[in-house]
């Protein structure tokens, strides 16, 4: 993906807190780039409204429920969840997920999320997401079997990776619910037997269990508990983008730095990245449409002079609103094609 040229080298003074971002958005099915200079839009009083939530996903939890998740938004006090144009749920900012219940089987639904700040100002809606509930199964009173072989490991000080063996059900498993202590914190589709939970605290002991759910809403017994203690320090590697590659090309009399990387695995969608050039923030990349999950690419302006060597790295904003670790640093020289130097 080639970006609109944006000056990449900051001034000699301190880097500003908010920099212009190139925002990819889908317009008529085409990915376009739009410059965004702030986290939200201005309200009537001149204040900054909360931004539209990003990373919104919706997955059927049963024949009558859908699990909706989203990424944390700065300045949010409350999140409002809409089914079509009707508000159906309201949760505090500490929550980033909700189950919308009392739905009809075999029906498609559209959901969106809006953030509200402490002054009661409502930000714009997120992109709409769609989910279809499965067909109901008549007189199904049999729950799925218990997920076995539940395992986990810490992934830095703020995340854990969990996995389990697939449960079985006479009508099929629709989803898996992940519980932290006695609280449901996450849900994944019935074909998924692993996930990453973020937003944890360093040096803290956690206990996780998994339950399988079928289309009728029957829940399995808890999986064996997974007990983990997050380390007291975080080297950031578990939440850092991997496979970073850097090269340059010349376009319209100037050099562009071309990056590609693999997004970190998290329990949500990564929609924002900070790109650093020579140790300072050069630009922010915010996806307004479908964010890439397997491979991401981006190009940005690096000046007109050939033979200039730059250091580049990037990090992702995690679904819980915190920044993950930085990728490995690469060096790239304008005018040279290969740019994978570095550890």
Automatic annotation (TrEMBL):
Gene3D superfamilies reported in the protein's UniProt record: Immunoglobulins
GO cellular component: membrane
GO BP term, pick one: polysaccharide catabolic process
SMART domains: FN3
All copies of domain Fibronectin type-III, residue ranges: 52-136, 143-233, 240-337
Gene Ontology molecular function, alphabetical: hydrolase activity, acting on glycosyl bonds
Alphabetical UniProt keywords: Carbohydrate metabolism, Glycosidase, Hydrolase, Polysaccharide degradation
TM region positions: none
Stretches the record annotates as Disordered: 135-159, 215-240
Domain of life the protein comes from: Bacteria
PROSITE patterns to which the protein is assigned, alphabetical: FN3 (PS50853)
Protein name per the record: Fibronectin type III domain-containing protein
Organism from which the protein derives: Streptomyces tagetis
Phylogenetic lineage: Bacteria, Bacillati, Actinomycetota, Actinomycetes, Kitasatosporales
């Amino acid at each position: 993906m080639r970006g609109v040229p944006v000056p990449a080298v900051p001034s000699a003074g301190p880097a500003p807190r908010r920099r212009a971002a190139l925002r990819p958005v889908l317009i008529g099915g085409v990915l376009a780039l739009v410059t965004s200079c702030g986290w939200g839009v201005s309200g009537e009083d001149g204040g900054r409204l909360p931004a539209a939530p990003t990373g919104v996903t919706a997955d059927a939890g049963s024949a009558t429920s859908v699990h909706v998740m989203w990424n944390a938004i700065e300045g949010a006090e409350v999140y409002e969840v809409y089914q079509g144009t009707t508000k159906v749920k309201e949760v505090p900012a500490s929550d980033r997920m909700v189950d919308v219940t009392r739905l009809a089987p075999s029906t498609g639904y559209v959901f969106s999320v809006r953030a509200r700040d402490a002054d009661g100002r409502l930000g714009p809606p997120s992109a709409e997401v769609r989910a279809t509930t499965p067909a109901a199964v008549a007189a199904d009173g049999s729950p799925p079997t218990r997920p076995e072989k539940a395992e986990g490991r810490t992934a830095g000080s703020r995340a854990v990776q969990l996995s389990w063996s697939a449960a079985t059900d006479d009508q099929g498993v629709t989803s898996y619910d992940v519980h932290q202590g006695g609280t449901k914190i996450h849900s994944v589709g019935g074909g998924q037997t692993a996930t990453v939970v973020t937003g944890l605290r360093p040096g803290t002991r956690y206990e996780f269990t998994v339950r399988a759910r079928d289309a009728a809403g029957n829940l399995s017994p808890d999986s064996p508990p997974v007990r983990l203690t997050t380390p007291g320090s975080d080297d950031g590697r578990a939440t850092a983008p991997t496979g970073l590659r850097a090269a340059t090309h010349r376009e319209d009399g100037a050099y562009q730095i071309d990056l590609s990387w693999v997004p970190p695995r998290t329990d949500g969608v990564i929609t924002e990245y900070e790109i650093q050039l020579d140790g300072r923030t050069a630009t922010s990349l915010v996806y307004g449409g479908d964010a890439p999950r397997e491979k991401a690419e981006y190009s940005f302006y690096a000046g007109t002079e050939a033979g200039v060597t730059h250091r580049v790295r990037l990090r992702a904003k995690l679904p819980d609103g915190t920044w993950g670790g930085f990728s490995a640093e690469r060096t790239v020289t304008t005018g040279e094609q290969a740019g994978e130097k570095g550890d």
